[in-house]
Amino acid sequence: MAHPKRQHSKQRQRKRRTHFCISAPSFAKCPSCAKPILSHRVCPFCGQYKGKPVVEIKPKKEAKA
Fold this sequence. Notes:
Elements: H1 10-16, E1 27-29, E2 36-38, E3 48-49, E4 52-53
Antiparallel strand pairs: 1-2, 3-4
């Protein structure tokens, strides 16, 4: 197995790592409520997937005064 003769410089390491960035998630619109959701997932607002009801969403309880 090959071994480097000298240590790679910090600049060379950083140049190589410039492509290791994290990309932002892409959002799609829910076909029923038009809110942004992650693609290929059930809508957390209306509970539908591909226009069909899958999950029943319970209304949130109001906070006490």
